[in-house]
Amino acid sequence: MENSSVNSQMLDARICHCGQISVTRTSWTENNLGRRFRGCRFYGRPDACDYFSWMDPPPHPRYKTVINGLLRKANNNENREMKMQRTVKLHHIALGVFVLGVLIHKYVI
């Protein structure tokens, strides 16, 4: 079973214009969120070729709307959680300062 999986991956591999096996990447742009494509393994380097091929069909417009909405919600929740963590840290610091003040007042004064 393992061999057939490896063989199907090898058959599915594409050779880019550099003569190398292309690599599979995932798009994170708003218009192609999660859409897989193949490209030159040297992308971003001066010696890269311009090989590019979509693996997945274009997403349905509804899919784009739903995924982008979910990402915005996730970002908002993450921001809320970060604010909450910051507030908790500030409360811990304030409590520590208060306790330190009580101890100084009790033992020094």
From TrEMBL:
Residue ranges constituting the GRF-type domain according to the UniProt record: 16-58
Pfam families: Zn_ribbon_GRF
InterPro entries (UniProt xref): Znf_GRF
GO terms for MF: zinc ion binding
Transmembrane segments: 90-108
Protein name listed in UniProt: GRF-type domain-containing protein
Alphabetic keyword roster: Membrane, Metal-binding, Transmembrane, Transmembrane helix, Zinc, Zinc-finger
